[in-house]
Amino acid sequence: MQRYEVQFADSQPAFQLRDFQPAPLGPRQVAVAIKAVSLNYRDLLVSRNTYFCPIENGLVPCSDGAGEVIAVGDEVTELRIGDRVASLFFPHWQAGEADGRAISGALGAEGPGVLTPHFVTDATGLIPIPDSLSFEEAATLPCAALTAWHALFEAGQLKPGHTVLLQGTGGVSIFALQFAKAAGAKVIITSSSDDKLAHARQLGADHGINYRNTPEWQEEALRLTGGRGVDVVVEVGGPGTLERSLMSVRTGGRIAYIGVLTGLAGAANPMMLIPRLAAINGIFVGSRQMFADMLQAMVAHRIHPVIDKRFSFADAPAALAHMEQGAHFGKIVIQVG
Ligand SMILES: NC(=O)c1ccc[n+]([C@@H]2O[C@H](COP(=O)([O-])OP(=O)(O)OC[C@H]3O[C@@H](n4cnc5c(N)ncnc54)[C@H](OP(=O)(O)O)[C@@H]3O)[C@@H](O)[C@H]2O)c1
């Protein structure tokens, strides 16, 4: 059997196929035949070893997978062979507020990931998926979708009639667009591409701003909200966009701070939080309970993830290169089994 491992060496893709032998299952463990994996921007950071934590040579990459249970340990009662499941980004964050233990062992960075046909984890690290979602669709959810859900409805307290500002048309932002529209909110979305903005409008976006042609996009966000500002910003740009987000948010509004697309360092001035009485919340994916809530909403609203492109297992390095180009809209999927 072969799986991908991160190998940091010159002149080769960081994700390399390697032979492996599955280990025997522990009593609380479950083996999953992974059918599909989706990529996140984080996987690019892992492949460059620029993620928060140091990445060990030989790590199995990627956090987001879905598949079928093929074996369970003696003490596992909550899952059975044949169950359709998705991985949890944080296998220990079950519900409630996160503590250090809850956000330890994240798949595909601190702990082994899912870019393998045979994935083993504790039973608590998996969640059953609804029949209405294919394995490919379910594989897009553990990181990007759950982050968008957490940002909008837990930290952002988004309500019908609110306006949310989304940045770019990658995985997190397109899920946030779908969820915000289902919740009756208005969406302003930015992109480097007019074609992508047109696509976002087809998905329900109310307004699009090309941030290349309109670098002062915060002024447009204010104009579109009659000078009031938006209720929630889903901040995926990071240091390079935060200053404009602070100028876009309404008095008493919320910024869900998620991403680092503009890099890790910056000089945004938090002073604007004072006259705005605004809040910035750090978001780190989410818990199993949030995942369960999100799945219920997706079923009720018939929400299906937007998949940009599918790659074969053998072409996983090409999938990573496709993400690096930034031409995608929504999610990139690797078909595993
Ligand atoms: N904190 C967390 O828990 C968490 C969870 C998930 C993701 N993240 C982070 O969130 C960010 C997005 O992740 P993702 O997986 O959704 O990425 P992705 O799918 O690769 O999305 C990238 C897209 O972002 C847009 N973009 C790039 N630079 C931008 C800028 N300066 N301003 C506005 N948009 C810009 C581009 O869209 P256009 O082509 O339309 O311009 C690009 O295609 C990453 O930094 C990731 O590490 C954090």
UniProtKB/TrEMBL annotation:
One of its GO terms (molecular function) is oxidoreductase activity. Pfam families: ADH_N, ADH_zinc_N. Residues 11-334 form the Enoyl reductase (ER) domain. CDD domains: MDR7. It comes from the Bacteria. InterPro entries: ADH-like_C, ADH-like_N, ER, GroES-like_sf, NAD(P)-bd_dom_sf, Zinc_ADH-like. Gene3D superfamilies: Medium-chain alcohol dehydrogenases, catalytic domain (3.90.180.10), NAD(P)-binding Rossmann-like Domain (3.40.50.720). SMART domains: PKS_ER. PANTHER family: PTHR45033, ZINC-TYPE ALCOHOL DEHYDROGENASE-LIKE PROTEIN C1773.06C (PTHR45033:SF2). This is NAD(P)-dependent alcohol dehydrogenase. It comes from Zoogloea dura.
